[in-house]
TrEMBL record:
SUPFAM superfamilies: FabD/lysophospholipase-like. The keyword Ribonucleoprotein does not apply. It comes from Salinivibrio costicola subsp. alcaliphilus. It comes from the Bacteria. The active site is at 48 (nucleophile), 210 (proton acceptor). Signal peptide: none annotated. A motif (DGA/G) lies at residues 210-212. A motif (GXSXG) lies at residues 46-50. Keywords: Hydrolase, Lipid degradation, Lipid metabolism. Residues 10-223 form the PNPLA domain. This is Patatin. The keyword Calcium does not apply.
């Protein structure tokens, strides 16, 4: 009997505007396959902006190049106004609405707090992602599983909403659960709702925010959906060199950037180390022992940006709508002090195209490693 094709997972981490980097990597990979070819990935796991990329690609699993082309077209034409209501009247109206909600009677439930209004993002997702295609990809066998991770503000749990093969069971672990769901716009808005910046999204009777907040094991959804290989497209750019460190007292810009890095970057390394230890244990066991203990060896490739995004964010920060820059300046946030926060919020074409180009080059620089993982 012919050996079945290994299940390969694509794990896309969160990072706001930085997720354009993932599009560059995927654009390079798509060129290595024929024009009409199924995706090399059968499992997609996404968090925050990475979840948007994951769902978009999963809906085109039957034609990998087409899925990547559509995603690239979207990111190359994205702008702040298509993600955030950035017109002066819209910004002021949103802030007045948020302020008025705090003075309502106690029996009137307040709307979720968010400094920025992401209603344009809701409209964009509804227009560009066909969620009904996910069921077709599952029935056709091109897709095995898809997960979108969000953080439950009520319980403090990391919840991975997944849609996939009926044999994939839900899971419950310490502060993390996997819940079978029909993925929709609400799940993507929840997963990408950066704390304080965007309002929480309601799913059922509970409110959810950015999936990276409580995500202590970013690789768990892929492992639980039976992945045998995992390609991780990380958006963290490593520790700054001493020459790049700002020695001024930390202001709100630096504190905000530090918080964003903590949310998106601190757990993946620990989870990778844990998986490597499990791989060592699995390699020392016989196949029957592995099956008895529920262990298996999982090949992993971790790809991260080769250069920092902060200098680019500082360079293109003036491209951000002036009303939004003025609001951030009132709060003490500007790219001159620290561009880390700006690198997450700068949804402007010139900046995004630079990130896509970096991802494209990095993929070509690691072509042999990527193809080694994806090729049978």
């Amino acid at each position: 009997m012919a050996k079945s094709k290994p299940k390969t997972a694509l794990v896309l981490t969160g990072g706001g505007a930085r997720a354009a980097y993932q599009v560059g990597v995927l654009s390079a990979i798509a060129q290595w396959y024929p024009r009409v070819h199924t995706s090399p990935f059968t499992i997609y796991c996404g968090t925050s902006a990475g979840a948007i990329n994951a769902v978009s690609l999963a809906s085109h699993a039957s034609c990998f190049r087409l899925g990547v082309k559509k995603l690239s077209w979207l990111w190359r034409r994205l702008s702040t106004s298509r993600v955030i209501a950035s017109h002066p009247s819209a910004l002021i109206g949103h802030l007045l609405s948020q302020t008025g909600q705090r003075f309502q009677s106690h029996y009137q439930p307040p709307i979720p707090f968010g400094l920025l209004n992401n209603r344009p993002l809701r409209y964009l997702l509804n227009q560009t992602i066909n969620f009904n295609k996910l069921n077709y990809q599952l029935l056709a066998g091109h897709l095995h599983g898809l997960s979108v991770t969000a953080s439950n503000y009520q319980t403090g749990q990391s919840v991975s909403f997944f849609q996939g093969d009926p044999e994939i069971p839900p899971w419950v672990r310490a502060r993390a659960v996997g819940r079978r769901s029909q993925i929709s716009t609400e799940h993507l808005l929840a997963s990408s709702a950066i704390p304080f910046m965007f309002p929480a999204s309601r799913i059922g009777h509970e409110f959810y925010g950015d999936g990276a907040i409580h995500q202590i094991a970013p690789l768990r959804p892929a492992v639980k959906m039976d992945a045998e290989r995992i390609l991780i497209l990380d958006l963290t750019t490593g520790i700054r060199q001493s020459a790049q460190i700002n020695h001024a007292a930390p202001g709100l810009a630096m504190l905000g950037g530090h918080l964003m890095n903590a949310i998106f970057a601190d757990t993946l390394s620990a989870d990778l180390e844990h998986l490597q230890r499990l791989n060592q244990v699995a390699s020392a066991l016989t196949p029957s022992q592995q099956q008895q203990l529920g262990l298996r060896h999982i090949d992993v490739l971790h790809l991260r940006p080769s250069e920092p995004f902060e200098p680019l964010a500082k360079r293109f920060y003036p491209h951000m709508p002036i009303a939004l820059r003025s609001l951030l300046k009132l709060l003490g946030i500007n790219a001159g002090q620290d561009a880390t926060l700006a690198s997450y919020l700068l949804f402007e074409p010139a900046y995004l195209r630079q990130l896509i180009d970096i991802g494209y080059r990095d993929a070509h620089n690691h072509q042999s490693d990527i193809l080694s993982l994806l090729t049978d």
